[in-house]
Amino acid sequence: MRARPPARRRSRLPGRVRRPAEVSRGGPRRYADRMTDQQRRRLVLASQSPARLGLLRQAGLDPEVIVSGVDEDAVSAPTPAELALALAEAKASVVAARPEVLGALVIGCDSVLDLDGRALGKPADAEEATARWQAMRGRAGTLQTGHCVWDTVSGRHVSATASTVVRFGEPTDEEIAAYVASGEPLHVAGAFTLDGRSAPFINGIDGDHGNVIGISLPLVRRLLGDLGVGITDLWAPARG
């Protein structure tokens, strides 16, 4: 009877130690939850627009809001697109220069409607808002939103403009009067918004809908990337 050969012992190769998966009480931890374990860059929005803040929060970001106080009437540019960009850069630079913002990433935005080459911001009063809608109905304009992202650590900033064509419907004089009476058009660029009472008066758009509301999230991602910042690195921890 032949002797049985000795059993071979299996040895683990160095550097190949298996580690248990990172888990929490509720199961594997999500990326956003793990962000609490590392330092996220502080994010500041240089705009008081609740629509812009809402879109950023929906995308997983939770910026602080610091209003720039820039006098928009004092800024001029040859074209509506250049004006939107100049305003965005002015707002971001003013906020980025504040000592208390050092270390943060600052986002500045501004929107104007380009109608026949004229830059239309917020109407001054109800009379102007009514005239705007009478001129816009049945036509198309281009919503230009300037974006500027400023890195207060490196001192670098990048900027660009996003453009979206807006095709207006034909609201009646009575509908325009009712809309103006609501007060909404006095607080938005171009006297309209996609996420409010004027939505039924807009037949469609060509381009980024978020840009019409106030901020293009794809453009923000690209600008952050130009500064070497990944947008997922700025996600806030999941709530709840």
How many DSSP E strands? 9
Work out the strand percent: 15-25%
Question: What general outline do the C-alpha atoms trace?
Answer: elongated
Secondary structural class:
alpha+beta
Provide a quick synopsis of the model:
With 240 residues, the protein is an alpha+beta fold.
Task: Describe what this molecule looks like in 3D.
The protein has 240 residues and is of the alpha+beta class. The chain has helices at residues 31-34, 50-58, 80-96, 126-136, 173-181, 209-213, 217-226; strands spanning 23-24, 27-28, 43-45, 64-65, 105-115, 118-120, 140-151, 157-168, 202-206. Helix 4 (126-136) runs antiparallel to helix 5. The longest helix has 17 residues, at 80-96. The protein is elongated and about 55 Å long.
